[in-house]
Amino acid sequence: MAKKEQELSVEEKLKTLFQLQTSLSAIDEKKALRGELPLEVQDLEDEIEGLKIRIDKINNEIDEFEKAINDRKGDIIEAQTSVQRYKLQLDDVRNNREYDTLSKEIEFQQLEIELCNKKIREAQQKIKDKIAEREKAELNLDDHIQELEMKRNELDDIIEETRAEEDHLKVKAKELESKIEPRLLTSFKRIRKSARNGLGIVYVQRDACGGCFNKIPPQRQLDIKMHKKIIVCEYCGRILIDPELAGVKSNVSADEKKKPRKRSIRRKKDEE
């Protein structure tokens, strides 16, 4: 019995739903003040992380080129040592065959030295290119860090300004949600989520749905005013509420404008 006494009437359900909608819309407005800032901050953080990874990769590539240069320098020293040894051996050759063999070895080692020097020059050029690429990335990183700091400060200011009011609205919304039966609340949230403007319940405006603005038949408008059952728009699916129950001034409908009255006055004047 106690459970039935606590159950809200249709009128109270509609009123509570509209109050909930008002609170949720106000929360949406607070979030809209932040605009794209949260996404911009996230994008900048991702880009900064990407730039740091890129700079680390460039540094590793420079290290590899420097190691390759050192290896080539070691090869040059070995080749030069071999050339010196082969040249000394030329003094002790006994025949032309030994002389030709040693000469070819010297020539081969000299070619090896030239090749190593070429590889060193190429690696040095690549290091220069990588250093230029790193400097560009570092400048880009500095710009992104400064922009991120600015965006974060801007976002923090907006959050600080709206936090208290937004927290209050969230508490109020939770209290209102607790008064609404789960099935109705679930339906309302589903409608609100699918609606472009986030409105799950709307009042009748100029004989039309306040959400999609399609005309509502007179009998259906009368049913809405009676508050006997939950009525939804047959076009957009939003829950409909009477403007007076929603606490807003209703606009005068086209049917309520009685222009024939002017014609009767004219007729009287003509008869006179």
Which characteristics define this entry?
76% helix; 3 strands; 272 residues; single chain; disordered N terminus; 3-stranded mixed β-sheet; Helix Hairpins; mainly alpha; disordered C terminus
Describe it.
The structure is a single chain. The protein has 272 residues and is mostly helical. Residues 1-5 and 253-272 have low confidence and may be disordered. The protein has helices at residues 2-6, 10-34, 37-90, 96-179, 182-194, 218-226, 243-246, 260-271, and strands at residues 201-203, 231-232, 239-241. The chain has two domains: 1-28 and 181-272, no CATH class; 35-179, Helix Hairpins.
Secondary-structure element string: HHHHHEHEEHH
Might you state the CATH topology name of the largest domain? Answer: Helix Hairpins
Structural class: mainly alpha
Sketch the major β-sheet. Answer: 3 strands, mixed
Radius of gyration: 42 Å
Give average pLDDT, whole number: 88
CATH class of the largest domain: Mainly Alpha
Instruction: Give the number of DSSP strands.
Output: 3
Shape: rod-shaped
Strand order of the largest sheet: 1-3-2
Count of discrete structural domains: 2
Residues in helix, %: over 70%
Total of DSSP H or I helical runs spanning 4+ residues: 8
Strand content: under 5%
Terminal-residue CA separation: 71 Å
From the 3D coordinates, which CATH architecture of the largest domain would you assign?
Orthogonal Bundle
The poorly predicted ranges are 1-5, 253-272
